[in-house]
Write a structure and sequence with these properties.
Length: about 575
């Protein structure tokens, strides 16, 4: 199809307001027919194939007033459409080409009024349903965007389609953009990165198979009286590290060491479950495939118990708390044996070496995603992620990626690894003083906690940010919160320091006398207050000073509550399940 000028003889738009979206939709197809040359249309004699192009395009769906934002169409039907010349079977007329158009109003209801009260006053007559008006006002503009899947002949370029869509919607005072156009490729070539990743994965799989077979063979031939931990030499031991048999046994039947803190296993499990739930509901960049977005917003903002799930980022700080606790607890023995000295190089290398394999595997699999699947939303997510990683993958390997803008970060979830490793570096300057000069070490830990809280509060106040990752309709503001506060080490260093304090108490003052009732009441009250303080803020933000105060203190307060729970299980305090109470009695 040849792109035409703005004066191209395009049918006049005759749809009125009461024609509805269906009239606009068929007008778009009239544009298709006009923009195509007569010779192309004349050759489309296979009526079924032609209809499949129209059929595969998205149509207005039910539930528009409840937040149905996507008319995806039939992606595979479109790409599978192939039309040949009936007079020359070797001549391809066109294939189906799937294009994604995003259409949005040039402004939202929130842009028209100073506040919600004014909007309610002005619009109550037209939108009497209070919940609908409330949701319409609070849904952010970048979510009030209709996504339309258009199936067009491959002879149409992306520019052709974008011009036609823009021409159509401009009569409705809307803006539009065609984000991508896809068609079936027969022979996809692999990039150098993809070939490298496949080669490395094949080598790893080969080592796993060889290691597993060797391991089983050795076990079968071992003398019954031979020790289970028999040594075989370094090369063979290295190969046996890849044994799926031994690794699976160790994974599903871990050794219960007498000095392990089993209470942490429970905290890890519950925290990870909470994080999965929270991420499933909270991250809404790609909600367009779903229906009922307005109902979802109402559930987020008005459901008291559901607000606890939305405050899931506290569970992330549970892991920082555990890291701080374990860095003291697991290294205290080495400090004791070395008279307060620490092998810093080995200390950091072991941590880095343990973190890299899963990170490298994640990066490698990401680059394989383009050849592992497709779909109307596939490139939106995977394509964007791959482009970001092509630019900044090295920051992930250096574990400094949490200092990038959240919109420019490769594998956003890996900010946690970067933050954790940065705390591990900081812990060097805490551990040694903590062992040799406890007052100095404890003071330094407290000052770090205080500094992190102050910086988080000040940035929240100065930038007028929400108090935390609550459900807030302005995604740009949430992005700023994530970039300047949530991903940064100063926002979580307090949680880590609480873990350091508890680790020191456990290794040096486990028998400290406390009243369990006071501990449990305080811990429960603080935990509940922190968890549900944000309930009303999902609907209406607090004042800036209150937001700054909550941002500065809530993560530390949560970890203080966790610290008592952990200490009670270790020291055997309080009316909690007996198995937890006695698990770590003085050894």
């Amino acid at each position: 199809m040849t792109a035409a000028s703005d004066d191209l003889p395009i049918p006049k738009y005759t749809g009125a307001a009461d024609d509805g979206p269906v009239q606009d939709w068929f007008y778009l197809y009239e544009l298709h027919a006009t923009a195509a040359s007569w010779s192309e249309r004349e050759m489309i004699t296979n009526f079924t194939d032609y209809i499949s192009v129209v059929d595969a395009s998205g149509k207005p769906a039910d539930g528009l007033l409840e937040g149905t934002m996507a008319f995806i169409g039939a992606f595979d039907e479109c790409l599978d459409t192939v039309v040949w010349d009936e007079h020359d079977s070797s001549r391809l007329i066109f294939q189906g080409r799937y294009c994604t158009a995003q259409v949005a109003p040039k402004f939202t209801l929130r842009d028209l009024f100073h506040n919600e009260s004014q909007a309610h006053k002005e619009l109550a007559t037209y939108l009497p349903k209070k919940a609908m008006l409330k949701n319409a006002l609070r849904i952010p503009g970048n979510l009030v965007m209709f996504r339309v899947g258009l199936c067009v002949p491959s002879t149409c370029s992306k520019d052709d389609i974008e011009r036609m869509v823009k021409y159509t919607v401009k009569h409705m005072d809307m803006k539009a953009e065609v984000t991508e156009c896809l068609q079936r490729e027969k022979n996809k070539s692999l990039s150098v990165i993809q070939i490298t990743v496949i080669t490395l994965l094949a080598a790893f799989l080969s080592l796993t198979i060889i290691g597993t077979v060797t391991d089983i063979t050795i076990k079968e031939r071992r003398h019954p009286k031979a020790p289970a931990s028999e040594k075989h030499g370094r090369p063979l031991e290295a190969l046996l590290c890849f044994s799926a048999y031994t690794n699976a046994r160790q994974l599903f039947a871990p050794e219960d060491k007498p000095d392990s803190l089993r209470v942490l296993h429970g905290i890890r499990f519950l925290s990870m479950t909470w994080i999965i739930f929270g991420h499933s509901y909270f991250f809404i960049e790609h909600v367009q495939p779903f229906r009922g977005l307005f109902n979802g917003h109402e559930m987020y903002s008005d459901n008291f118990f559901f607000s606890g799930i939305i405050n899931f980022t506290l569970a992330v700080d549970s892991f920082f708390f555990i890291s701080g606790l374990l860095v003291v607890y697991t290294n205290w023995k080495e400090l004791t044996e070395s008279n307060g000295r620490l092998n810093v190089i080995r200390f950091l290398f072991n941590k880095y070496w343990r973190m890299m394999p899963p990170l490298l595997l994640s990066l490698g699999l990401l680059f394989l995603m383009p050849v592992l699947g497709d779909g109307p939303f596939w490139n939106d997510i995977m394509g964007t992620e791959i482009k970001l990683c092509e630019k900044s993958w090295w920051s992930n390997l250096l574990l400094i990626n949490n200092f990038w803008d959240s919109k420019e970060m490769c594998l956003v979830a890996t900010w946690y690894l970067a933050c954790n490793f940065q705390f591990f570096i900081i812990s060097i300057f805490i551990l040694i003083p903590l062992y040799n000069w406890p007052i100095v070490g404890l003071t330094a830990t407290f000052l770090l906690l205080l500094a992190g809280s102050i910086v988080s509060g000040v940035i929240t106040f100065m930038a007028d940010l929400p108090p935390g990752l609550i459900f807030y309709p302005d995604l740009d503001t949430v992005s700023n919160l994530v970039t300047y506060v949530y991903h940064k080490p100063y926002n979580h260093i307090g949680s880590y320091c609480v873990g350091v304090f508890l680790g020191y108490v456990i290794v040096r003052h486990r028998d400290i006398k406390v009243k369990p009732v006071i501990g449990w009441c305080t811990s429960f009250s603080v935990g509940v207050a922190v968890l549900w303080a944000a309930y009303r803020w999902n609907a209406e933000l607090p004042s800036t000073p209150v937001a700054a105060l909550y941002a500065a203190t809530h993560r530390v307060a949560w970890c203080v509550a966790l610290a008592w729970l952990t200490f009670a299980c270790v020291a055997g305090h309080g009316a909690i399940p007996r198995r937890c109470r006695v698990e770590d009695r003085r050894r």
